[in-house]
Amino acid sequence: MIDRQDVMRMARLARLELSEEEIELYQRDLNSFLVSGRKLQQVDVSKVEGTSHAVAVIGELRPDVVGESLPQEAVLGAGPQVFNGFFKVPRIVEGQE
Amino acid sequence: MRRLAELLQSKQISSTEIVRGCLERIEETEPVLNAFITVDEEGALAQAAAADRRRAAGEPLSPWDGIPLAVKDNISTSGLRTTCASRFLRNYTPIFDATVVERVKRAGLPIVGKTNLDEFAMGSSTEYSAFGVTKNPHDPLRVAGGSSGGSAAAVAAEQVPWSLGTDTGGSIRQPASFCGVVGLKPSYGRVSRYGAVALAPSLDQVGTLARKVEDAAILFSLIAGADPRDAVSAGAPGFPVPVWDDTVVRGLRVGVPEEFFSSGLNEEVEKAVKRALQNLADQGAVLQPISLPTNEYAIDTYLTLVTAEASSCLARFDGVRYGERVEAADANTMFAKSRGAGFGHEVKRRIMLGTYVLSASHYEAYYEQAQKVRTLIKQDVARAFQEVDVIVTPTTPTTAFKIGEKRNPLEMYLSDLYTATANLSGVCALSLPCGVDSQGLPIGLQIIGDHFGEELVFQVAHAVEESVGRGTGSEV
Amino acid sequence: MKYDIVIGLEIHVALLTESKFLCSCATAFGAPPNTQCCPVCLGLPGALPLVNEQAVEYAVRAGLALNCEINHFSRFDRKNYFYPDLPKAYQITQDVFPICTNGYLEYYIDDVLRRTTITRLHLEEEAGKLVHSSGSIVDSEYSLVDYNRAGIPLIEIVTAPDITSPRQARLFLEQLRLLMLYMGVSDTKMEEGSLRCDANISLKPAGSTVLGTKVEIKNLNSFRALERALEYEAARQSRVLEQGGEIKQESRTWDERSGRTLSMRSKGDAPDYRIFPEPDLPPLRLEPDWVFRIRETLPERPLERLHRLEESYGLSRYESTFLVNYADFCQVFLELAEEGEDNTDLANLLMGDYARLAREQGHLEPQRLAGLLQILQEGLITHNQGKAVLEELFKSPLSAREIVKEKGWEVLKDPAQLKGVVQQVLTANSELVERYRGGEEKLWGFFVGQVMRTVQGKADPQMVNELLKGELTQKS
Ligand SMILES: [Mg+2]
Ligand SMILES: [Zn+2]
User: Which candidate from C44, C84, C276 shows the least CB-CB separation from B331?
Assistant: First the structure.
């Protein structure tokens, strides 16, 4: 069973601020998923490797050639907060010190 | 579309006239349908005018130069807002074109606008959009399906002749089925994903929707083929529009998986699909009962993988470089507030689930297990294609359901029951209309082909289309 | 109680590619902020990564130089965590299947050859750069982000915990740096962050095989910082243990100002990176032939060169070490050296005055330095004059021979002319000549000095000696 703490931990890992109702909602949803997901765990997979890529393609590599970058205005254009050519973010260390 | 191209070529109609026609049709039907998030009237007319100039100069970019399309709003269009139907990106305008957009532009196709979808393509009904629900043109009380609901509805309602969508677990085929149009999910890697906003990169494909099989094939021919910007598309062949040959059906080995005709399948859907199968048999196809026993795990496998990959793909929406930001005193709180406010419930639910299945203590039991079951599913499909040429199934267990009908997320996820297997195994699949139910709602038939087997799938689809007769029109 | 120190290092080396790891933006250092960015390295929605072939080659080269096994199959993974400098909120790295494993590096500690095991070497992408408003992350109100650095290719090299002293850690890192430099894979500038090191250190009772709790030290920006931080940390841990305390598993940062390590306690949970295979990139498969070609063309390693200098050129460990450490000097040496005894002279010239001048003003063309060595050998000038000529070589475009000529510094080589001077000196000091002949042999030096003073030092001392001897004995 997934408890409230688990939900809070996932929300923290995923950086999602959740309301009280959402916490309860997702706790319920996660638990019902686990019930249905149990079927999956009973499949015998002892003899198989996992598939991470739908098709096994040989990775084609890119030659080391410099291409065009975007102009700074285009890079920063969609930035919610920019300053002096940089993106600006609030303090990184959370405020307990 | 061939006829439209001829009319354009013989100057009996102009691209501007076609685009105006689309815009008028949109104006007329949008208040009910809500198929579009953004209609780019100005841009589309400008592109049409350019197409007309090229025609006048005798230099069309392709036979289809000037025939407009609509693009699902999770495919990046340079200079044209691309929201993914999310609050988070409601003001985001890309600075580059997706490869598929670049390719349709290179063929001269004006983009009329960006179609509605479930937020970040997470859903099967286009109800989870920050821009409202898209209605089914056959019955506005019903969903258009999803997540490419806007692209399917726009084509079905003749707002545009054709459109682009994306398909991760059925997101082109299921709405195509619900709206009575043709929808192709290409083989994994056949079409560049560059610029299509990722939901689950190991499953995502961009594909085409149109009212006729041939049109879906033509649009597909414009976007297919390797793109140096998408590593997994390396080695993908291009796609010439097929020369139709309905005799391919003779001796064709058609696999009919018993698991797709079991409980949960609506009787009317079953009847229509079986009738189409019988038609194929009448034309000389060999119907071969096959078994895809692992299909019963497809939904759970799909859900595990898609939520895991999505939780990672959507992490970049943190409010630093683009998108909506909710200010806070420190960065982590800013991230959490921006994401909490920017994402809808379904997106948050899937991120939570994906985070859970990837987290250290559950990775092995869920994510890794799902990857291994995926291998079994792939093996099942590969085994089937040693015995048959195509697999035919219903596209969805039911016809379009009512808006608001599916409140339980797990119930909604079941919409992908018949479609997710093709994504999990990387093969191609197409849905086309094969009749209507007693309420007049379209029923979809799915043809699954082997990896890079699009040509055969289209040939078979064309034959089915001929035998079924004209597809159902719009009721709006 | 006595404790054994157990140290393991994790080193990040920025590779010297022209373009970034996964996109084609330039990697040049020092550009204005956010001017070397594109949709890929900004993590814009829909952008996809593509692996730079040169980065793979450099990783293989580094791996071969470290005697690693090169894995013909390796895979990229996503490491998920939120941080403002990480555009996609995940780092593309190699977790389960790194490109190189199981190697070692050899290096000298006080003439004893030591070996440290390299557990693994993998490819990954660099993050962007943060500038903190107050200069320190701890008390900054806000931070600024520059993504120019984001996406530069890195290799991460991880050692086994088999380093037993802070000094050994430094010597290891110095040798590793030199190796990377020799392989041409990195400029290894610690001050620009292209070589970074984190250290894990734990203590265990002397002789025990049970490892203690390890502490990770970050922010080690120089060799000195590495050694000092480890010394401090070893002392701190031993103090804690002596007092019956327990070492906490944690990350600490080296604070240069106070000369201490400080805990980087963060509130919240332990990190959970939810690592899973990167779906956007196919696994990396290396052709055995390709790897073989890289192995065949691998540059000489520093340790091989050290041994070659000692064995083939007869240099001492001290001289060889100097030349190995300064590859540019070594190149000059190798261009000029011949098998023979004057190699030592050459090495000493390079290590002495030349080193001082070259570091200030850059290297001379080896051929100009060769010109100096040649006239020294010919005896055209004396060793003392050699220094002056060397200084001139750095200032003027003339060759050594031309400088000597212009300055009139040739040694008086005409025996007749020099004989005249000698005779003149002896005549002027006839009294002293008598005393010398009478047995006061210490006057010899006086005569030599007088001759040299008269010719302003430009005489070959040996010839002066011979002539003096001749004159003084002849007439007795
Ligand atoms: Mg690392
Ligand atoms: Zn870039």
Answer: C84
Minimal Cβ distance to A30: which of B320, B341, B352: B352
Domains of chain A: total: 1
Do A88 and C35 lie within an 8 Å CB cutoff? no
Average pLDDT, whole number, for chain C? 90
Helix (H, G, I), strand (E, B) or coil at C203: strand
CA B46 to chain centre: 27
Choices 2.40.30.10, 1.10.10.410, 3.40.630.10, 1.10.287.130: CATH for C415-472 = 1.10.10.410
Chain A residue numbers touching B296 (CB-CB < 8 A):
39
Write out the residues surrounding ion ligand 1, Cβ under 5 A.
C 156
C72-92 pLDDT per residue, tens: 999 999 999 999 999 999 999
Q: Is residue A68 part of a domain?
A: no
- Which backbone phi and psi does B61 adopt, to 5 degrees? -75, -25
Residues of B in contact with C272 (CB under 8 A): 359-360
User: In chain B, where does the domain assigned CATH 3.90.1300.10 lie?
Assistant: 2-223
- ipTM, 2 decimals? 0.95
Residue recorded with tokens 């050639």: A65
**What is each CA distance from A56 to A59, B259, B292, B302, C121, in whole angstroms?**
9, 27, 22, 19, 24
* Catalytic annotation present for B147: yes
CATH, residue A29: 1.10.20
Residue of chain A nearest B375, judged by CA positions: A51
| Domain contains A24 | yes
Average model confidence (pLDDT) across chain B: 95
Q: Which of B260-269, B326-335, C114-123 has the lowest mean pLDDT?
A: B260-269
Binned at pLDDT 50, 70 and 90, residue B474 comes out as: very low
**Is B171 a known active-site residue?**
yes
Q: Which residue has the higher pLDDT, B139 or C414?
A: B139
Q: Which residues pair with B205 in a beta bridge?
A: B167
Across the strands, what pairs with B185?
Answer: B429
DSSP assignment string, B404-448? T---SHHHHHGGGTTTHHHHHHT-EEEEEEEEE-TTS-EEEEEEE
pTM: 0.90
pLDDT digits (tens, 9 = 90+) for B248-269: 999 999 999 999 998 789 999 9
Report domain extents, chain C.
3-293, 302-407, 415-472
C391 Cα to chain B: minimum distance (Å): 55
Nearest ligand to the C-alpha atom of residue B229:
2
- Whether residue A82 lies inside any domain: the answer is no
| Catalytic residue (one of B72, B114, B185, B406) | B72
CB contact (8 A) between residue A64 and residue C17 = yes
> Are C457 and C382 a contacting pair, CB within 8 Å?
yes
Q: B98-114 as b/e, with b when 16 or more CB fall inside 10 Å?
A: bbbbbbbbebbbbbbbb
How many angstroms separate the CA atoms of C15 and C31, rounded? 18
- Fold of the domain spanning B2-223: Amidase signature (AS) enzymes (3.90.1300)
Task: Supply C5's token pair.
Answer: 């120190």
pLDDT tens-digit map of C236-248? 999 999 999 999 9
**Residue A97 lies inside a defined structural domain of this protein:** no
Chain A residues near residue C32 by CB distance under 8 angstroms = 72, 85
Q: Which of B195, B231, B232 sits opposite C46 (nearest CB)?
A: B195
pLDDT of residue C405: 85
Q: How many CA atoms lie within 13 A of B175 on its CB side?
A: 45
pLDDT at C271: 83
Between the CA of B293 and the centroid of ligand 1 the distance, in Å, is: 42
Which chains are within 8 Å of C by 3+ CB pairs? Answer: A, B
Domain extent at residue A35: 4-41
Please tell me the predicted confidence (pLDDT) of residue C265. 67
Q: Nearest CB to A85: which of C24, C34, C268?
A: C34
Q: What is the Å distance from ligand 1's center to C472 Cα?
A: 79
d(CA B337, CA B346): 17
Task: Say whether B135 is catalytic.
Answer: no
Percent of chain C with pLDDT over 70: 97
